[in-house]
Please model this.
Amino acid sequence: MSDLNAYLEFAVETAYLAGRTTLSLFQTGPTTDFKADGSPVTEADRRSELLIRRRIEESYPDHGILGEEFGEEGAGASHRWLIDPIDGTKAFARGVPLYAVLIGLEIEGRIEVGVAHFPVLAETVYAASGAGCHWNGRRCRVASTRSLAQAYLSCTDPGNFGRYGKGEAWSRLQRAVYHRVGWSDAYGHALVATGRVELMLDPVLSAWDAAPFPVILREAGGYFGDWTGTETIYGNEGLSTSQHLLEEVLQLVRG
Model:
């Protein structure tokens, strides 16, 4: 636990410092470029990731790194940091404050440390295995809601469900819940971990988008993983909910 606590403290501080670099460009009309896959990137994304990489390389030179903007180094290391320097670049580029800096530490194939920092909102949700999940310094847990009929459901882009062959599952879930909201990207998953909504769904998700959430949701008493019920960041999709609601959600997803 002492090692994990040290890693967590390092990750929280690093995410905060990276977030500070993004704030200097927030709501300044930053130039947005587009990568080969059509996703946006700004100078703030690059500066944030370079800061995180530099700190990891200085503190943990034997660890691997996988980041959205600058790829992988140290492949095969037992410890690997996964970085999304700005999760929600579309929001950031439009001056919307619901973007995040995401850092996860994978040890021997399992996410053991995770941080989701929201610079504009001054919110940080973080966890290490066995240490609980915390939200700005206080313990947090998923909601105690026992039925989807009383649950809030969040997503990022509703159009993606149809694009990725999950439109019918999305329709079933929408009908089953009490309220549907668009608190998107990483913020939706953080809202589940802190008990403010019950369910967040992503029909498409990269490993760095998902990196901190398995341990965050696990330590908050919930679940993050793919749509089959497997805790993973490599399912190309994401689902956060409580253990109370997981089976009901999975049944609706399966149809």
Observations:
- DSSP finds nine helices and 15 strands in the chain.
- The longest helix spans residues 2-23.
